Amino acid sequence: MPTFSTIGLGLEKIRSVLTIILLFGLILHSNPVVSQPSVIISKGKEAGIYGGLAVHSFINLKLEEKISVNEIHYWKIRRIDRLAPLRFSSAYARTSDITFAATGLLALYCVSQRQTAERNTAGLLMTQNLWMTWNITQTTKMLARRARPYASESGFSDGKKDDAYSFFSGHTSLTACMAASHYFYDRSLAIKDRRPGITLGLTVLSIGTGIFRIKAGKHFPTDVLAGVIMGTGVAYLNTKLHGR
């Protein structure tokens, strides 16, 4: 016999699927962008940025090799973080993966629908923003080594490196970065060519992903909030860097 918890989880899944269907319905009515974005792409600048990103990724790989499986830091759980369940839910984890993938597909679709010049610029900025966010997220996780919520459950003894990668949420930082990248690029276009519906859809999916990560026992609320700030901040600063 189904319980209230299983019924609630089923409703959450239905909501996430309906949200995805609604968002893809919205993008079918979007028109190609025709105005020129107020951003500048410089070969020298882009080469320097990509070079720095590659070096950062290499440092992350070397740093991860030195981390011991047993080096988990159990931070004191305070205030808002007490909302996180101290157990793992595979159903919510899968749902967060679905909304994460849907965010990526929606962002990719939006970029692909732009005209050639705008598509190249938007794609380049999105790629840089996501790579930067991923690098910073991984570095922070390996330095903080915060135990995931489920690692505090009584009798827990797994011992994977991933158990110590709670702060901050990579799913959330990357989806927030996608939403913010689209928003800040949209702001560089003429008002008639902006797509607020896409921005809203990406934002809803990003928020949903963060909530599901908490429900899954993979992250504390502060992990998700930090991910939102980081992803949004990277998108803002890198778009500003390319401004006219």
Helix and strand sequence = HHHHHHH
User: Tally of extended strands?
Assistant: 0
> Rg from C-alpha positions?
19 Å
What proportion of the residues is helical, as a percent range? 55-70%
Mean pLDDT: 86
* N-to-C CA distance: 62 Å
Q: What coarse outline follows from CA principal-axis ratios?
A: globular
Instruction: Report the β-strand fraction as a percent range.
Output: under 5%
> Which structural class is indicated by helix and strand composition?
mainly alpha
- Total domain units: 1
Describe the largest sheet: none
Low-confidence sequence ranges: 1-7, 27-31
Number of helical stretches of at least 4 residues: 7
Structure characterization notes:
It is a single chain. This protein has helices at residues 4-27, 43-65, 90-112, 116-144, 170-186, 196-215, 221-241. It has 244 residues and is mainly alpha-helical. It has one domain (44-241).
Short summary of the structure?
With 244 residues, the protein is mostly helical. It contains 7 helices and no strands. The protein has helices at residues 4-27, 43-65, 90-112, 116-144, 170-186, 196-215, 221-241.
